[in-house]
Amino acid sequence: MSDDEASYILDSEQLFKIRVIESLADTKYEMLKSQNKYCSIDFMLLNQSNLLSVLIEHKHKNIDADKYDNFFIGYSKIVTLSTFYNKPLILVFQCLNELYFCEFDDEFVKRPTSLVRGSRVIHIDKSECGSGFDKLIERLKQILYL
Question: Residue 2's pLDDT band (boundaries 50, 70, 90)?
């Protein structure tokens, strides 16, 4: 495969961005993707009419979410999000069969941690999350219209 052909392959984050922008169906929204691969967030969604924005961390999970009660996220990422990024910030867990999301707040850093495969993580119970792409879009619109 040539470099030109490789540039047309869309990864899960690019597909997510396209789907969000198409679902919002309004030119006043702009969604910016972080260009730094070490950045702790993936996107900033901006309402250009009122300059309200929301940050989004997108996690693609190759799991059937029905088989699990919670999601894991690295504790060091939580500390970084809490220290360096403004709110509102949405954590998105895109699984094979469903999309889940929750709003990040500074209380996340106070949650109990555990070790999973040698990494310190926090658990996010699915019951704390909203589910479904349409509900995510609805919540993003609410945040951007406040």
Answer: very low
The first and second tokens of residue 61, run together, are 């999970």
- Residues 116, 72: contact at Cβ < 8 Å? yes
User: How confident is the model over 117-123, as a mean pLDDT?
Assistant: 94
Amino acid at the residue 32: L
Which DSSP symbol is given to 125? E
Give pLDDT, residue 38: 85
116 closest CA partner among 54, 68, 55: 68
Contact 95, 64 (CB under 8 A): yes
pLDDT at 81 over 70: yes
User: Closest Cα to residue 45, out of 10, 92, 79, 84?
Assistant: 92
- What is residue 130's DSSP assignment? E
